[in-house]
Design a protein that fits this description.
This protein is an alpha/beta fold and 435 residues long. Helix content is 27%, strand content 24%. The chain is built from 13 helices and 21 strands. It binds pyridoxal-5'-phosphate.
Length: 435
């Protein structure tokens, strides 16, 4: 249930026709449905209702402060991975004591900001980082509550670029070295170790890797407790996959995921931190785009749209599948044909779909790329000097622009010609002859 449904043959976000938003705000743009975000949070929270769990929305999936606030209002905390995300979470109204600070490369300034904000915990990923945090905490008069991120060396069976729990990945400390690292941490006056963290990857469509990782965590907790450490908190990361429309098998439900947690580690007398990102917001967003041209190539048909890889990079970066649907519902029985849906950027990888069956479209038609609420707007760039596109949040029959379109002036206004090039007419004169 994602609240993007056809009504009277027009695709709506909740009660708002997407055509209306596209006319007012212009394409391309992202549209998010509040009801979907809220529903996904509810389903996730209910799955863990009988466990002592804090749900910290992984802000990196969609860091718009209106999206964060939508979740914060439902009681979610936040998982942040940069100083910028920390500020976004605080600006959205998430209290410091519900914020987890994760990430493999925190700077001293970011550590100090996290301590100042009184974050619930900082997840540390290496010994050098532990030393740095100890130094920052001592020099600022804090004691950092720390969970050490363990790399459980399990294969998450997901795309290589978003698999994070193998020993060859850059994340966490090797679980075989945990004994030593915890002993070091325990001796540091600026550090208070409160637990352990794992996060094995994103878009997991199979629960087996979680089971393996949690089992390993269970063994580790026993060992660390035998060493005399207090392990009160287990941060289980995020990663639960969502349906993008191309899966053969259904993706696991939050309830099934919670059952894995319950059966593997539910009896350890620990508080859990959960960091869902994609699962909460992924299917709550679409990228709305308009068809510019339908180009009949020699061997294939290209539908050229006004959105591009700089607006939504997942297809180019991960080969990701996004369902693409026309905003005007085609009459029943309309024949589809296979087309490539491509953007205007000068890269062949600027392709949203290849050989995709679509009903006939013409220039001016609106298309919605579904499942674009997570890792969409946040990963956008201004490549090809294309301004970042607007984001719109719908709630019932209302909608609001929660980030206006950047302008080309915004982009160029931040760029500078160095002094040595100013008034340099020769540099601007056409070069004569061969370069
Ligand atoms: C990316 C990330 C998440 C969220 O992952 P999803 O797949 O979006 O649920 C959670 N925790 C950490 C540490 C992450 O890096």
């Amino acid at each position: 249930m994602d609240h993007f449904l056809y009504r009277r043959n027009r695709l709506h976000a909740e009660d708002v026709p997407l055509e209306i938003i596209a006319e007012r705000v212009k394409t391309p743009l992202y549209v998010y449905a509040t009801a979907t975000i809220e529903r996904h949070y509810q389903v996730f929270a209910e799955a863990f209702a009988d466990l002592p769990a804090t749900i910290c929305y992984a802000v990196k999936a969609n860091s718009n402060i209106a999206v964060i606030r939508t979740l914060a209002r439902m009681g979610a905390g936040a998982d942040v991975v940069s100083g910028g995300e920390l500020r976004a979470a605080l600006a959205a109204g998430v209290p410091g004591e519900r914020i987890v600070y994760s990430g493999v490369g925190k700077t001293a300034d970011e550590m100090a900001a996290a301590l100042r904000a009184g974050v619930m915990q900082i997840n540390v990923e290496s010994e050098p980082e532990l030393e740095a945090l100890d130094a920052v905490a001592r020099s600022t008069g804090h004691r950092a509550r720390v969970a050490i991120r363990i790399n459980p060396d399990v294969d998450a069976n997901t795309h290589a670029k978003i698999s994070t729990g193998r020993s060859e990945n850059k994340f966490g400390i090797e679980w075989t070295g945990a004994h030593r690292v915890y002993a070091r941490a325990a001796a540091m006056p600026g550090i208070a170790v409160i637990g352990a963290a794992v996060h094995i990857g994103s878009q997991l469509t199979d629960l087996a890797p979680y089971r393996t990782a949690f089992q390993r965590l269970r063994d580790l907790v026993a060992m660390l407790r035998a060493d005399g450490h207090r392990i009160d908190v287990l941060d289980l990361g995020g990663g639960l996959g969502i349906p993008y429309g191309s899966e053969n098998a259904p993706v696991p439900t939050p309830a099934a995921y919670a059952e894995v947690v319950r059966s593997a580690i539910g009896d350890l007398d620990c508080r859990f931190v959960l960091e869902p990102g994609r699962m909460l917001v992924g299917n709550a967003g679409v990228l709305l785009t308009r068809v510019l041209y339908v180009k009949e190539g020699a061997t294939r048909t290209f539908v050229v749209v006004d959105a591009a890889m700089n607006d939504l990079v997942r297809p180019a970066m991960y080969g990701a599948y996004h369902a693409i649907v026309p905003v005007a519902e085609p009459p029943a029985g309309t024949l589809v044909r296979e087309v490539d849906v491509v953007g205007p950027v000068c890269e062949t990888s600027d392709t949203f779909a290849t050989d995709r069956p679509l009903p006939p479209v013409v220039a001016g038609d609106l298309l919605a790329l579904r499942g674009a609420g997570a890792y969409g707007a946040v990963m956008a760039s201004t490549y090809n000097v294309r301004p970042l596109v607007p984001e719109v949040l719908v709630s019932g029959d209302r909608f609001a622009v929660i980030r206006p379109r950047l302008s080309v002036e915004d982009i160029l206004g931040r760029e500078r010609i160095p002094g040595w090039m100013r008034d340099d007419e020769r540099a601007l004169a056409p070069a004569g002859g061969e370069p």
